[in-house]
Each structure stands twice: as structure tokens, then as C-alpha cells.
Amino acid sequence: MNLIAKQYVKGTYGFVTTNNQFRILNELGFPYGKKSAIVRIPTLILKSNNKLVYARFLRGLFDTDGCLHFKNRRTGKNYSEFKKKYNYYPTIQITSISKPLIEDVEFILNKLGIKYFVYGAQPKDKRDSYKYVIIISGKERILKWMNLIGIKNSGKYTRYLV
Fold first, then answer.
1. Looking at the whole model, is its pTM more than 0.90?
2. Distances from the Cα of 84 to the Cαs of 45, 56, 138, 140, in angstroms?
3. How far apart are the first and last CA of the chain?
4. What's the domain range around 15?
């Protein structure tokens, strides 16, 4: 298969291929046409029941579409001044407008035993699509993520190390 990657905007790629090559991708579960709201994890991955395959898929998804950030605890009177002032509390977030994709990620997280929280949100700009967000937060959960899945994106990995 001869795929040619083209960078359109910093960090965003598209692929140029022949109809026959795309047919092969389609047979693997990659849909034709607009797919942002309907994309999901390929059945081949979901039905593999292989934790290494699950972990590698999640790592790729996180490295491209996830984020790692640190929060402080400004609210709540029981938090120390340090916790109120500094961003120390780790959070992994994966966001998509595709509900099926988020449901598939939930399936994998459950198989891997990683606890998470999911919510939906309408962006402030009503022209933007409704989004679904998976949050994995807390030191223990992030350490479990790192042990099972890891991070290959150098920018995100550096943030983790700091």
C-alpha cells in the first residue's frame, strides 16, 4: 500500500491514496467520507482481547489526540497552600466528538483496569460539535497508565517527567 502523508497544518496530516488502497483501509474499518462523529476503534483491535494491542492503540490515540495537564486545588478549605497555589494534580484527557470512539476507549480502559470519568459538553461556540471527554486523574491512575500504556510523544512525556 502506497500512502503519501501530507502535512496540512502543524500537527495535522492527511493521506493521499488510490481507490484500491482506500478500499483495503475501508475493509479494516476505516469509513468513507466524513468520519469525525462516527469513527471508532477497529473491530480487529477491540476483539483481539490482547492487552498489549489495547495499550498500544491507547498510546497512539493519546499521543495524537490526548493531553496531560496538572491542576491545582483552589477550591476547598481542606487543601494546603501548596496545593492551592501550584499545579501538581495530574490529569490525562482524551476528547472526541465521536461517541462510539469514546465508548470503545471506555471498553479498553475497563479491560485494562484503569479507572476514569466520562462527561459530555457543548462548547461555548454553538457551531462546534458536542464533545465527549474521558478523564483519568490522580497520581496512582497516571502511574498505572504509564506502566501499562506509556507516552511516546516527547512533548507530553517531558511534561510528565517535570
1. no
2. 42, 35, 16, 20
3. 40
4. 1-30
